[in-house]
Amino acid sequence: MKLELAQREVNGSRNARSWRTILLGNGQLMAGVFIFALVMAVALFADGLALRPYDAMDLGNRLQPPGTGGPLGTDQFGRDLFSRVVYGSRIALRVGLIVVTIETVLGVTMGLFAGYYGGWVDRVIASVTDVTWALPPIVLALAIVTALGPSLNNVIIAIALVSWAGYARLIRTKTQGLKNMPFVEAARALGESDLSIMFRYILPNTFGLVIVLATLSLPGAILSTTALSFLGLGSQPPAPDWGVILNEGIRHLYDAPWISVFPGLAIVCTALGFNLLGEGLRDVLDPRMKV
Amino acid sequence: MLEYSVRRLALGVLTVLAVTLVLFSVMQLMPGDPIRLLADPGRVPPHRIEELQRQWGLDRPVAVQYLYWLGNLARGNFGHSIISGQSVSVLIASRLPFTLVLALTSLLLHYLLAVPLGLLAAVRSGSRLDRAIVVITTALRTIPGFWLAILLMLLFAIRLRWFPISGYQGLSSLVLPVATLTLPMLGGTVRLTRAEVLETIGERFVLTAYAKGLGHRAVRLRHVLRNALIPVTVMFFLSLPWVVGGSVIIENIFAWPGMGRLLWGSITNQDLPVVQGIIMVIAILTVVCNTIGDVISGLLDPRVRIELEEGR
Question: What's the pTM?
């Protein structure tokens, strides 16, 4: 145990010193950071980038191909597709971040309690996750959205509710490993309460894992929410949600295929960026991390 | 092993029961009132509405409704569709084969492609080929299924006219939906196979096999691949429900007459009995597959079996 701790310290200081070399030397991470920065910039400066408001119609310019009708063409109402895709990044990022925040808070708390207390607390939480896993996530999400009614907020709730269990399991394992460490025993000896030990001593030691998990689950969150919006259950028109645009585009596959191409490209770019970022972070923080 | 299987089975039954409870509660929370859909309160007299409520059992206490529903479920009676009046089990039975054909074909095809690719990547590990295989299959995973479906439609149905764009007109209709489900799945299995093969190659029994004078081919196929495939086989059962879940969206894009499309139509019509029935079928399928997956991993891998027997 001591040796392992010492080893960790050595690794830690090495990491701190050559932080920059590690970052720059990791192509995956750099590519991820670049795409992430790009998507964030598009979302932040959407007002400046977009050529027109996302819902400005121009019925004289319906279904114009890219080039003649703006950089990415226009849709069935003559709206500028480029502007819609640009504004869509805001919805995607906001929705992704909210979903990931909810599932992180829920999953980490559950995992901490299950791992720290063990016994019946662990068993209750384990059976809740078992039930969550007894349905494919998209089916469970459909059931929840059906019950709550279709809206973007309900989609966010549904996706967060079906995906926290993965966090809980990983954090539980990590907590079980940490709770018998000398520093936790020391804290207990000093009279710290269980809650304080969980959230002030164990939780900070799981941050690396949590950051990697959150980054890696963001693409999934964006994919699932756009899928539900695509099915007409999430964002409603005229919102420039990428899923909504794709849903509108599928009716114009023959006469305006570009409507169906560009929002998908935006989804793939964003998802790829966060995947690269997450995997890069994992390699930098702890290559042996199992996520 | 037998004791473990029985225990695992009991756990599965409990999980299904829990799912029925959750499902029933979720459906109780639904804002829509099916009776209102059947009979407009403005035009239908109140006594007739009460009669309808009695007929559907909607005037009983919630707990009674649940037990009644559960009892029927156990007898394979999923009730009747509120919209069409057809028996839900008959409805599902007419659609389930389409979904299973779609899911199983995709799953099998994905194994036929992913396992050789994973083995190739592992055997040539570190080479350009290895990197290309891993990068391409992983990139496919980030493409959302519904967009991949649209791209395939644009290319193969509209531009090239090789396959029908949607609906069910024989085997050629199966190609695009199967491709949509198969391609994104490759990445995970290629990585799993590759990692397992690489891990197995380092085992001592592989060295022994070489020491016996066996050739590369024999060692790779008979000793390495056979062991590396254990987790891959288990994954087959674990992923079947996921593929069925994924097909819910894909079936709707391709107008494939399966269970996913039925589920979709029933959700928009608030046809509760049908929605409940389909979700129950998928839940049972999931639990059964998970149980089989767990039991099989014990059967195939003596190490897991020993661990299980000693651990309990």
Answer: 0.82
